[in-house]
Amino acid sequence: MNKGVWLVACVLLAGCAGGNEDNLQVWMDEQGRTMRGAVRPLPELLPFPVVNYAGVQGDDPFRSARMEPERRASGSALRPDLDRRREPLEAYPLESLQMVGVLMQGKSTHALVRVSNNLYQVKVGNYMGQDFGVVTAITESEVTLRELVEDVYGDWVERTSKLILQERQETGR
């Protein structure tokens, strides 16, 4: 009986598919007779005027010196000592260093500086940061540095920076 149901369903589906195809073809023929295309012609292309390039006689716009600022004769005697041995804290930018404490014993004062989970003792005269920063003063709340940076003209200028004590914030337990 199951085969009989399938046979009836197939006969009914075959009968439905054949009748609409003729109506569809008649409709397409009727629509094709009434439609007319209206495509406008393309506009005429005008020739561009020919312009001679006069850049051969002028300044080269891609010259590297044109991209850099003018160098002046340096009157500054400031220069970093590039021959001295680098200290460990010069490998890090100043922004990544944290002052976490101060050690005072007699007249000597050392700052405790943390970077990448390592703790360093710093005294006056040590170098820190990537801009040739030398420690000039240590107080209970900050480390003062004198840095040498190069300006746009190639001159070395001094800049004062400070590393402020990072106080640990207490959590309410």
What's the layout of helices and strands?
Blueprint: H1 2-34, H2 64-67, E1 98-105, E2 108-115, E3 118-122, E4 127-128, E5 133-138, E6 142-150, E7 156-164
Antiparallel strand pairs: 1-2, 2-3, 4-5, 5-6, 6-7
Unreliable spans are none
Secondary-structure class: alpha+beta
| CATH class placement of the domain at 77-164 | Mainly Beta
Between the first and last Cα atoms, what is the distance in angstroms? 79 Å
Average pLDDT, all residues: 81
Q: What integer value in Å does the Rg equal? A: 42 Å
Strand residue content: 25-35%
- The number of distinct helices, counting runs of at least 4 residues, comes to 2
- Which sequence of strands runs across the widest sheet? 4-5-6-7
Helix and strand run? HHEEEEEEE
What is the CATH architecture annotation of the domain at 77-164? Roll
Query: Approximately how much helix is present in the residues?
Result: 10-25%
* Major beta-sheet overview: 4 strands, antiparallel
Find the CATH topology of the domain at 77-164.
SH3 type barrels
General description of the model:
This protein has helices spanning 2-34, 64-67, and strands at residues 98-105, 108-115, 118-122, 127-128, 133-138, 142-150, 156-164. By secondary structure, the protein is α+β, with helices and mostly antiparallel strands. The longest helix is centred in the N-terminal third of the chain and has 33 residues, at 2-34. Strand 5 (133-138) and strand 6 (142-150) form a beta hairpin. It contains two helices and seven strands. The mean pLDDT is 81. Helices cover 21% and strands 27% of the residues. The strands form two sheets. A four-stranded antiparallel sheet has the order 4-5-6-7, with no helix packed on it. The chain has a domain at 77-164: SH3 type barrels, CATH 2.30.30.
